[in-house]
Amino acid sequence: MTAEAIEAGPRQGAAPAAPADGDRPLRIALLTYKGNPFCGGQGVYVRHLSRELARLGHRVEVVGSQPYPTLDEGVPLTELASLDLYRSPDPFRTPGRDEYRDWIDALEVATMWTGGFPEPLTFSLRARRMLAARRGDFDVVHDNQTLGYGLLGDLGAPLVTTIHHPITVDRQLELDAAADWKRRASVRRWYAFTRMQKRVARRLPSVLTVSGTSRQEIVDHLGVRDDRIRVVHIGADTDLWSPDPAVAEIPGRIVTTSSADVPLKGLIHLVEALAKLRTENPAAHLVVVGRRAEDGPVAQAIERYGLQDAVEFVKGISDAELVDLVRSAQVACVPSLYEGFSLPAAEAMATGTPLVATTGGAIPEVAGADGETCLAVPPGDAGALASALARLLGDPDLRTRLGAAGRARVLANFTWARAAQGTAELYREAIARQAAGPGVRQAAGQGARQGARQAAGHGARRGTPG
Question: CA-CA distance, 157 to 432, in Å (whole number)?
Answer without folding.
Answer: 11
